[in-house]
């Protein structure tokens, strides 16, 4: 049996590095662990943490193809973040110009959740934990 212990990180490729860096750090509040420019790839790599845990690698590459988000496509469906107060979180996102879907209730758990998108239309979810 494979002995997986945790999800180590999620890699995201963005179209506009500075816009996405600002979104993930200033709006979502992830902290920067490290940043490097890889000249041979014309690519930035930004390591981001949530509550001190490494979670996202944000990459830039020249002219990456778009990923279809709608209609939902094969592959990663969305990335979900747990929040203690979904109303406060939606208020924060709205204040920063981020549009969220109406808050819904998970029929199985009774928990509230909503969806929104990052600057490249990657679907993101907030799930009240």
TrEMBL record:
Domain VOC: 6-129
Protein name: VOC family protein
Family matches, as Gene3D superfamilies: 2,3-Dihydroxybiphenyl 1,2-Dioxygenase, domain 1
Coiled coil: none
PROSITE patterns associated with the record: VOC
Keyword Metal-binding in annotation: yes
Taxonomic superkingdom: Bacteria
This protein's UniProt keywords: Metal-binding
Keyword Cell membrane in annotation: no
GO MF annotation: an example: metal ion binding
